[in-house]
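Justification of computing resources. Each target in the renewal requires a structure prediction run like the one illustrated here; the chain below, 253 residues long, is used simply to show the kind of job we budget for.
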Amino acid sequence: MQDANKDIYLSVVIPAYNEEKRIGATLFDIDKFLCRKKYKYEILVISDGSTDKTVDTAKKYGQLIKNLYVIDNLENKGKGGAVRQGILSSKGRIRLFMDADNSTSIEHFDKMEPMFEKGFDIVIGTRDKRDRKEARQSVRQPLGRIVLGDIGNFFIQILAIRGIWDTQCGFKGFTADAAESIFPLLKIDRWAFDVEILTLANRLGLKIGIVPVYWNNDPRSNVTFVGYLNTFRELFIIRYNLWRNRYGIKIKS
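Resulting structure tokens:
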């Protein structure tokens, strides 16, 4: 990592697809939090081929919010691809990605920071009480989503990584070294990219910490039943890539 990059402590990466109605409030909340901090920071909005006014809205807020940068991808690559682009384009010593709907607010970073100071390479948020009993959700998810989520996690525990119940929470932070070790290796651009991140982190021997979050479920979420099916499909792709050692790392037995 170059010396110039060390000036920025925190990079906040926000992947966004057709988020013109929600991105403004999220950026305002992030700015309100960060402007009280003494460390240097940057905010990156990665528009993933948005067809609405997401980019225009974010750029308007960029006139009011310092250190806000907008990357406009004309082609939709998937959330995983947008996150990877943002993380690798950022310069912070800590690099955090969060959802454009602000379902997990930036205030939760205050819980992460002490864990990074203790030597964790990655710190993730969890909405699941099985990970951290303090985890909460504003509104309980529909039964169908809960069942699909539990089925998916059963396969994740068997095929990818054990011991983490909420692999999909869109609030994850990385040291620069961890980010630069993991993200160039990623092959999944869409649904199961979170699982791939954590699986590779585990294979690389990186230290993963977990913090409880208060998750504010937005009923306008873009996740569909087809999304769950695609997550299952990509999970088996990850397992196959591990088996064939397509990531080019030594797999622990």
